[in-house]
Amino acid sequence: MSDPTTRKLAAQVAAHTSWASTSDRAARTANARAALQARFEDEVDPHRVLDPDERARRVEHARSAYYARLALRSHSSRRKAADLLAAADTADAELKESL
């Protein structure tokens, strides 16, 4: 099963099967959410010296920045893919004209 498409499809089947048998989605993801929360808290207040309200405010900004960075990277990737596709289409059209 070394083919990337086969691996991807097998992983999708496994994931859907697993989620289909999960009765409490929130409980299943609680550890991951807590770890992400701790990551942001460590980022903004590693020694836990800030007032809890101030830490929470900063954590929310750190979380927003994290997801904004992901969105920016996604947008850049999609834009690059669109530009490459347009260039390929142009090259293809030029090749057909020259034949």
Ranges where pLDDT stays below 50 over 5 or more residues in a row are none
- Count of spatially separate domains: 1
Mean pLDDT: 95
* Terminal Cα span: 41 Å
Strand % is under 5%
Share of helical residues: over 70%
Number of helices: 3
Q: Order of helices and strands, N to C?
A: HHH
Biggest β-sheet strands, sense, barrel = none
Query: What is the radius of gyration?
Result: 22 Å
Give me the secondary-structure topology.
Elements: H1 4-20, H2 25-44, H3 52-98
Features:
single chain, flat, mainly alpha
Overview of this protein structure:
- The chain is built from three helices and no strands.
- With 99 residues, the chain is mainly α.
Task: Summarize the model shown.
Helix content is 85%, strand content 0%. The chain contains 3 helices and no strands.
